[in-house]
């Protein structure tokens, strides 16, 4: 070393044991009476970790690094969510000092270390966790930094949106700065399947349904039951349980003025079935569409789509001239007959029968045929034969003939008029 010069000395500290070191390095220098002493201090530190799994109802289970541990999520329904909590920490460890003493936890250095999770599927592929892709795992946090003084909470959740099996999936926690055996391995198990609940239909068209006269733009309040004088269409939805376990069935649909799903949350027994009445009562001459959501076991959702429209009841005479049927003047025991045609101009089938208000026509010897109920498809016609056969004096009259179409709906079809004169003999 020349006058006024310096030579760098590099000291490499590579501890072989987990303890504190304190020693002197002697530098021998020629023509110097005493050697130069270099005091070296250091601490050998190994990352110690502890991973604890919280098992509900069973307490905590400590997981061991380098050992394949089992984590079973059990059997789930599709859309169900199940998870486990873990705690990562660094336990205290007494280190030996060079003088034979030991260090306490308070004297240990505050070491921080990284950790990261790795997911390997049953096929051996390493994947990133995605909630909407197999294996439907969510790990929070996926990676992070742990410290010696605090526990790091970790949450692993399994939420499959479809039928799926976790068997063969492996989770690994890697600690890059730790020793070779510091990784934790979890062999996962569990499966999800859909409840075997079968709906008789998932789509239904009510078609055209009559709107009650005066019901257009009427009350918007939903009705608890269908009144007997209100036209409606009904679908009996049959829900059958093909599973080996009971299933809970509910609906999120809220009753509207025109649609009522008559379902109280119910249990459908294994092998059994449940009938759900769906009542369609249109309030206007428009088309209606709805999606009815059913919830199975509070997790799985199934929708049934329904549609229908309101239409007007149009039962009319085939010609304007037929709206007044006149038998004219007859004499006693002389009969008269007339024929008229009724046409259905509605968008759906009409069932009706002719009605004599208060029996006034029968009192005047007016009858008709057919007397049974009549069904007419759209644009279809029916012939009505009318008969007037009085045997006594009948004063001139003009009375209506009504068509009773059910649900309290009556249509005035035509009027009947006539009179009967008889000779009166006196002795």
Automatic annotation (TrEMBL):
Superkingdom in the source lineage: Eukaryota
Signal peptide: none
GO biological process: axonemal central apparatus assembly; cilium movement
Parts forming coiled coils: none
GO CC field: axoneme
Official protein name in the record: Abnormal spindle-like microcephaly-associated protein ASH domain-containing protein
């Amino acid at each position: 070393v020349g006058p006024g010069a310096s030579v760098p000395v590099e000291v490499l500290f590579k501890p072989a044991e987990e303890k504190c070191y304190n020693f002197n390095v002697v530098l021998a220098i020629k023509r110097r009476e005493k050697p130069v002493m270099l005091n070296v201090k250091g601490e050998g530190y190994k990352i110690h970790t502890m991973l604890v799994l919280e098992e509900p109802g069973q307490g905590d289970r400590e997981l061991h690094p380098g050992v394949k541990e089992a984590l079973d999520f059990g059997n789930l329904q599709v859309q169900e969510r199940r998870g486990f909590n873990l705690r990562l920490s660094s336990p205290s460890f007494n280190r030996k000092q060079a003088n034979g003493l030991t260090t306490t936890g308070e004297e240990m250095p505050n070491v921080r270390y990284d950790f990261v999770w790795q997911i390997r599927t049953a096929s051996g592929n390493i994947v990133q966790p995605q909630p909407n892709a197999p294996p439907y795992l969510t790990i929070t946090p996926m990676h992070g930094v742990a410290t010696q003084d605090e526990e790091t909470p970790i949450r692993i959740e399994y939420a499959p949106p479809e039928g799926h099996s976790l068997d063969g999936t492996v989770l690994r926690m890697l600690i890059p700065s730790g020793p070779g055996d510091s990784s934790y391995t979890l062999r996962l198990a569990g499966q999800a399947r859909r409840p075997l609940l079968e709906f008789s239909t998932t789509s239904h068209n009510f078609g055209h349904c009559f709107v009650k006269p005066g019901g257009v733009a009427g009350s918007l309040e939903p009705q608890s039951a269908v009144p007997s004088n209100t036209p409606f269409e009904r679908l009996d939805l049959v829900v059958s349980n093909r599973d080996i376990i009971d299933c809970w069935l509910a609906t999120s649909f809220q009753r509207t003025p025109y649609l009522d799903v008559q379902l109280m949350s119910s249990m459908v027994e294994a092998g059994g079935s449940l009938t759900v009445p769906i009542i369609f009562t249109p309030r206007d001459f428009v088309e209606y569409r709805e999606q009815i959501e059913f919830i199975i076991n509070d997790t799985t959702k199934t929708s049934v789509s329904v549609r229908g429209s309101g239409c007007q009841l149009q039962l009319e005479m085939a010609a304007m001239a037929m709206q007044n049927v006149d038998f004219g003047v007859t004499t006693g025991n002389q009969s008269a007959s007339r024929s008229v045609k009724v046409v259905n101009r509605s968008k759906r089938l009409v069932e009706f029968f002719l009605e004599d208000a208060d029996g006034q026509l029968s009192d005047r010897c007016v009858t008709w045929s057919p007397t049974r109920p009549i069904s007419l498809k759209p644009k279809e016609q029916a012939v009505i034969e009318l008969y007037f056969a009085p045997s006594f004096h009948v004063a001139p009259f003009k009375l209506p003939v009504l068509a009773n179409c059910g649900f309290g709906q009556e249509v005035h079809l035509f009027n009947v008029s006539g009179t009967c004169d008889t000779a009166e003999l006196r002795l």
